[in-house]
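Entry for the shared binder. Reason: the reviewer on the internal report wants the predicted structure included alongside the sequence.
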Amino acid sequence: MSVTRTFRGPNFGPDHFEPETSADPQAQRRLRGQLEQIDYTAFAANRDVLAQSLSATGIEQFQRLALATAGARARWVAEALAISGSAVPTSQQVARLAELRAAYNELSEAYEGLRRMIERGYLSFKPWTT
C-alpha cells in the first residue's frame, strides 16, 4: 500500500497520511475509524493536560502575550537599525541581534500555539467581560 503524506508547513513535520484510494472501501472505513479514535485520544489528552496547566484563557492573556511579542519585535528591529549604521557589525552586535530575534520568535510561536489550543478546543476562552 502506498502512502501519501501531507505537510503543514516549514515548522512541522509530516502531517497525517492518506491511505491509497484504490484500497478496499471497507478497509478504508475501518482505517478512518481507527485514525479518528487516535485523533480523539490525542485531543482528549491535550484538553485534559492543557486545561489543568493553563485553565481558561481570556482576552487579557492574549493581549499580554501580543504586547510582549510586539515589544520583542520592536527591540529586535531597533537593534538591527542601530547596528546597520556601522560598516561591519561586531560579533557581539550580531549575537545580541540573534538573541533578540530568538526572543521574538519564541513569543510569536507561543502566541500561535495558544491560539491553536483555543481553535482546537483544548482550552476554553473567556471573551471581554462587559
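Summary line for the report: The chain has two domains: 1-54, 57-130.
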